[in-house]
């Protein structure tokens, strides 16, 4: 009989702990990513220095800051951003990046944004308007 009471009590304690811990874990450990919406992306030559630049206008619709640490123009160059460009949740920001290589007018390039969260935004195909 004592064994039965011990099992019932241990089961009740285990269920109570599980009922308290599971909601806490799901609310604190849920991944809340950034959701970056690219509004504009342009490659252009800067009139003052004659160099190529990449201009990105993006909005973060997510719940965490979007930290862009690397930009790649596929097959041509990769730019490490130091410090990373940060877009706070619920905000829109324009980012201008000076490029090292030359680009052709009228050509289409794939631009990839790499975020510290591990997200990659790869579908930014744009025709250079210069």
From TrEMBL:
<protein>
    <submittedName>
        <fullName>Uncharacterized protein</fullName>
    </submittedName>
</protein>
């Amino acid at each position: 009989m004592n064994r039965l009471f011990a099992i019932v009590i241990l089961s009740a304690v285990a269920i109570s702990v599980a009922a308290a811990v599971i909601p806490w874990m799901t609310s604190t450990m849920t991944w809340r990513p950034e959701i970056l919406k690219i509004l504009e992306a342009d490659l252009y030559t800067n009139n003052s220095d004659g160099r190529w630049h990449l201009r990105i206008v993006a909005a973060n619709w997510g719940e965490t800051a979007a930290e862009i640490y690397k930009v790649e123009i596929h097959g041509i160059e990769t730019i490490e951003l130091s410090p990373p460009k940060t877009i706070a949740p619920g905000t829109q920001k324009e980012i201008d990046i000076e490029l090292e290589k030359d680009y052709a007018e009228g050509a289409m390039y794939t631009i990839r944004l790499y975020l510290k969260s591990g997200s990659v935004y790869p579908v930014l195909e744009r025709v250079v308007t210069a």
